[in-house]
Amino acid sequence: MSFDWLPIATAHGSAESVAAKYPTGSTVQVYFNPRKPSVAVLEHVPKEKIWLNTLVFIVMTALCLILLVIVLTGNSGNGVG
Question: For each successive 10 residues of the chain (81 residues), what is the average pLDDT?
Answer without folding.
Answer: 51 72 89 89 74 88 94 71 49
